[in-house]
Amino acid sequence: MHFLNYFQSKTLKQDLLNKFYYKNINDLPKLEKVILNFGCKTNDLKQLSTTMLALELITNQKGILTKSKKSNILLKIRKGNPVGCKVTLQKKLMLKFLEKTLLEIFPKIKNFNGLTVSKLIKKNSFTYELHNTLSFHELEEHYYLFNNLPKLTITIITKTNTKEELLFILKAFQFPLKT
Questions:
Q1: CA angle 109, 111, 113 (to 5 degrees)
Q2: What angle do CA 138, 37, 179 make, to 5 degrees?
Q3: Looking at residue 74, what is its pLDDT?
Q4: Tens digit of each residue's pLDDT (9 = 90 or more) over 73-116
Q5: What SS3 string covers the chain?
Q6: Domain residue spans in the chain?
Q7: What is the pLDDT of residues 29-44, one digit of tens each?
Q8: Are 174 and 165 in contact (CB under 8 A)?
Q9: Burial, 120: exposed, middle or buried (Cβ in 10 Å; 0-12, 13-18, 19+)?
Q10: Fold for the domain defined by 28-178
Q11: What's the confidence (pLDDT) of residue 166?
Q12: Number of Cα atoms under 13 Å in the Cβ half of residue 172
């Protein structure tokens, strides 16, 4: 059993029961999935392939291309053309990625003051961006390929009912939040 899964099932469950009121034990919030997304401003095939390769190296899971929903004349993007890629992580892969970001990536970032929590935060998801994706050791080895990657958007989706529960879970997992 992964230590974050053990923490979630034993310690966090008890803390949530003490802090909030639940009628049923199945109503307890938990982490559901993590979505990693690279959005490209152009539909350049070389940049799309490097972002897809970077996602696959980071997560050890195959990614999918995201297509544009609307045409954009300024960016010269047609409707239906690929504009980025994403990977959805669940269960063990999600916990491994969260472990990697909490223990390896955040300490490597220079001048890191924490993740800002905006007032527009949703009740069941938290989104933040990593501008320096070369903090991942999988990408450091191949700097010449990945030096021009766009920012990585990471969305953590939970099974919470209020913003307070979401922030409580994130603080329990020791996310460096700046409110």
A1: 95
A2: 95
A3: 55
A4: 555 666 767 777 889 999 888 888 888 888 887 777 777 767 77
A5: CCHHHHHHHHHHHHHHHHHCCCCCHHHCCCEEEEEEEEECCCCCHHHHHHHHHHHHHHHCCCCEEEECCCCECCCCECCCCEEEEEEEEEHHHHHHHHHHHHHHHHHHCCCCCCEECCCCCCCCEEEEEECCHHHCHHHHCCHHHHCCCCCEEEEEEECCCCHHHHHHHHHHCCCCEEC
A6: 28-178
A7: 888 999 998 877 666 7
A8: no
A9: exposed
A10: 50s Ribosomal Protein L5; Chain: A, (3.30.1440)
A11: 86
A12: 23
Give 157 or 81, the one with higher predicted confidence.
157
| CA 53 vs CA 32, 58, 141, 155, 167: distances in Å | 25, 9, 13, 19, 32
Kindly tell me the sign of the dihedral angle through the C-alpha atoms of 86, 55, 58, 139: negative
Length of the chain: 179
pLDDT tens by residue, 136-152: 878 878 787 888 888 88
How far is the C-alpha of 112 from the C-alpha of 132, rounded, in Å? 11
Which tokens sit at 6?
């053990």
